[in-house]
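Narrative of activities, Objective 1.

The group set out to show that a structural description can be obtained from nothing but a protein's sequence at a throughput compatible with the screening campaign. Below is one input-output pair from the validation batch, recorded exactly as produced.
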Amino acid sequence: MKAGGPPPRFSEAALQEIGRIYARYPKERHQSALMPILHLAQKEFGGWLSVEALDYVAEFMGIPNMRVYEVATFYTMYNLKPVGRYHVQVCTNISCWLCGSETVVKTLEKKLGLGVGKTDDEGRFTLTEVECLGACVHAPVMQINDDYYEHLTAEQVAEIVDRLP
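Output recorded for this entry:
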């Protein structure tokens, strides 16, 4: 979603998915569906959540904007600025760090030619360091878009990046 573009609106398919999400919660607790709806909004609106998208979600769900901002800014799974076609996230929390996440990050920085927190000029890759990917037993771990890669070595990281179309 580009700033100044049309206002964000869920597609018909997204609205159907929201109906399935809401069905998981008692009607009086639909606000509890905020996280899966933010996840859906992120996919629906170009891989990130602009302020306009966050406001739309708040209005759509009938909850205060601040509640949506609190959730979207707390969790690293929500992108608050555009990311590359491949969003490469590396966990550097204690388990991953002890198992070599530092090597994974350095390999990616060299292989992708960009630092942590950066997106390449072509918009192909964004490299992000995250607090936790919730897969400590499989450390070190990285996530590329929706796929997890576990028990990584520098060689495996390079091969995974090379295989991306």
